[in-house]
Write a structure and sequence with these properties.
Blueprint (H helix, E strand, L loop, with lengths): L19 E8 L6 H4 L7 E5 H7 L12 E4 L5 E8 L5 E3 L1 H4 L4 H6 L3 E6 L5 E2 L2 E6 L10 H12 L2 E3 L3 E6 L2 E10 L2 E2 L9 E3 L6 E4 L11
Parallel strand pairs: 1-5, 2-4, 7-13, 8-14
Antiparallel strand pairs: 1-6, 3-4, 3-6, 8-11, 9-13, 10-11, 11-12
Length: 217
């Protein structure tokens, strides 16, 4: 079957992988179909243009891992691409990540950023220790089950020491990732501080919240 009508570079020879790209980036709320993706404001997942997938297809397929993960220059968070869309030419990134970028630099660069692909094979997370910032999380029925479902849906991977939000009703609740697989932020583990939540069963441990105002009724 001839696939060239779908992808016109299908017969082109592959080239060595480039790991860094300059892309235009905006908050997820700027995406014109934002209401369909509002949930992912509280995630590490973004929307990317289909043209970026076409760029990736020119590289040796053995060097690209899906979902695609990357970091943004000046930000320590690892992001993944939720979907590639054909009607956009910019990346749309959750605001809790976007707000960590330097606003002045963004304006001076015309809202472009440098991203670097992360092609590592992450170790699977099997145990996740979270510390909530607010005791409001106690209002969630069957809170452990809720968090298990939503962390796996919203995050393809997590970094030890990160502060991440989870959607609950019309707001978010922040959690610090204290440990993964018994590895803490103080551990001498280098790049292995990032763990995958894809196709893995994770035991969830929720520590006491940072605020001390909660009183059991």
């Amino acid at each position: 079957m001839d696939f060239r009508y779908i992808q016109d570079n299908i017969d082109n020879p592959t080239v060595p992988l480039e790991s860094e790209f300059v892309i235009s980036a905006f908050p997820l709320a700027f995406y014109h179909m934002y209401d369909n993706f509002r949930y992912y404001e509280y995630s590490n997942k973004c929307i990317a243009p289909l043209t970026f997938l076409r760029q990736l297809s020119s590289f040796d397929e053995n060097t690209i891992k899906f979902p695609v993960h990357f970091t943004i220059s000046g930000c320590n968070e690892v992001l993944s691409i939720l979907e590639f869309k054909e009607d956009i030419d910019s990346f749309y990134i959750p605001n809790h990540v976007y707000e960590k970028l330097d606003t002045k630099e963004l304006e001076q660069s015309g809202f472009t950023v440098s991203i670097k692909l992360d092609t590592r094979e992450y170790e699977k997370a099997t145990c996740l220790v979270l510390k909530p910032f607010r005791s409001a999380f106690y209002s969630i029925p069957d809170v452990t089950k809720y968090l298990e479902i939503h962390f796996k849906k919203a995050y393809s991977c997590l970094r030890v020491g990160s502060i991440v939000p989870i959607c609950y009703r019309d707001h978010s609740l922040d959690f610090e990732v204290l440990a993964i697989n018994e590895v803490t932020h103080d551990s001498d583990s280098g790049n292995s501080l990032v763990y995958s939540l894809i196709e893995t069963e994770v035991e969830l441990v929720v520590d006491t919240p940072y605020d001390s105002d909660y009183v059991c009724s």
